[in-house]
Amino acid sequence: MQRSRSTIVFALLVGLVALSGFTAVAGGSGTIPLILNDSFTEIVFTWKLQNGSSDAPKCAPKVPPGTSGDCAFKFKGSPNEAAKLSQKSSPSTLSDVNALLSSSGGLVNLSYDYYSTSEATKIDAKIVVVWTPDGGIETKSKMVDPASGSTLSGIDYIWATEGPISTITVDQDATVSKIKVQFKNSSTSGKAYIDNILATMTGPSS
């Protein structure tokens, strides 16, 4: 589900406030950010890059107009392109997630901004949650949200938001052992940027 960035400014601000920290209250409600450095502005690079060539985080002035926070991650397309950018939730984040699940179920969401300079852009975002129900068998749940290339002219390129297209539901009293967010670039040409990655687990509203 693609939307113009201009139509989702308010939603992004709400999301960024939620990502400022774990805001859980009694009853397991609240929001837990699942990854670090979601806008690529931190000096310490918390993401893992595989099969990269000219793929790298970039900051102003080497990013498209309208980039939030002045930084973004750039993917460059090429024949047989297979770059992957991923990050696993930290042990402390998993501890927060399991604390929430001790008193409620949780919903996992993923959305991100992207900017494409080519019709050949193809990026697949994926979030994987490995969890075990109370007294049950380990389960792997995943959600994939693709972004397609721009069909606009060079002067009309815009940032757009992709997702969330659905959610992953994790049962109350389950134990989460792994959460991984991954972006796979299969673009055959052009450049694409990603930014404002919102990966969260939420409990019921208070």
Q: How much β-strand is present in the residues?
A: 35-45%
Biggest sheet overview: 8 strands, antiparallel
| Structural class by secondary-structure content | mainly beta
Helix fraction bin? 10-25%
Q: Which descriptor suits the 3D outline? A: elongated
- CA(first)-CA(last) distance: 28 Å
Instruction: Please provide the ordered H/E string of secondary-structure elements.
Output: EHEEEEEHEEEEEEE
Mean pLDDT: 82
Are there runs of 5+ residues with pLDDT below 50, and where?
1-27
How many DSSP-defined strands?
Answer: 13
Compute the number of helices: 2
Measured on Cα atoms, how large is the radius of gyration? 17 Å
Note down, in words, how this protein is organized.
By secondary structure, the protein is mostly beta strands. Helices cover 10% and strands 42% of the residues. The chain is built from two helices and 13 strands. It has helices at 9-18, 91-101; strands at 2-4, 31-33, 48-50, 56-59, 71-76, 83-88, 106-116, 122-132, 139-148, 160-162, 168-170, 175-185, 191-202. Strands 1, 2, 4, 5, 7, 10, 11 and 13 form an eight-stranded antiparallel β-sheet that branches. It has a five-stranded antiparallel β-sheet with strand order 3-6-12-8-9, with helices on one face. Strand 8 and strand 9 (139-148) form a beta hairpin. The longest helix is centred in the middle third of the chain and has 11 residues, at 91-101. It is elongated. It starts with a strand and ends with a strand.
